[in-house]
Amino acid sequence: MGGDNGSCVLGPYDCHLQRYLAEGLTNEQIATRMKRNTRTIEQHVAHIRKLLGVSTREEAVRVARQRGLLPPKGVPVQEGSPENPSPDAQVPEDSTGHEPPHAGGG
Q1: Biggest alpha carbon distance in the chain?
Q2: Distances (CA, A) of 90 to 34, 80, 82, 99
């Protein structure tokens, strides 16, 4: 079990999004950073909460930290790591295997 990325119950897209939840960003701020539609982010946040068995964003962050899916509070995630891809990195497909819709033109 443990906290390695192989044990993550979340797909890579959701793991990426979880990092922004941990930063306390709003859905709109996350959508801007991930170049996605706000509704898409809302759906993924709900999906993360369901997978983790929690009802709030704050609980999702707490449980993710407890399970080793996020570093402890106050410990920065290194850029380029799976939890914090570089800003120029391609955002992975969502956990259903589908590329989420982009929020706007090319």
Answers
A1: 41
A2: 10, 11, 12, 11
Dihedral, CA atoms, 73, 77, 32, 48, nearest 10 degrees?
-60
pLDDT tens per residue, range 58-67: 999 999 999 9
CATH number at residue 50: 1.10.10.10
Structure tokens at 90: 């391609």
Q: Which domain holds residue 55?
A: 5-66
The arithmetic mean of pLDDT across residues 61-77, rounded, is: 83
State the CB neighbour count (10 A cutoff) for residue 83: 19
Asked, for residue 28, whether it belongs to a domain, the answer is: yes
Q: How far apart are CA 80 and CA 39, in angstroms?
A: 26
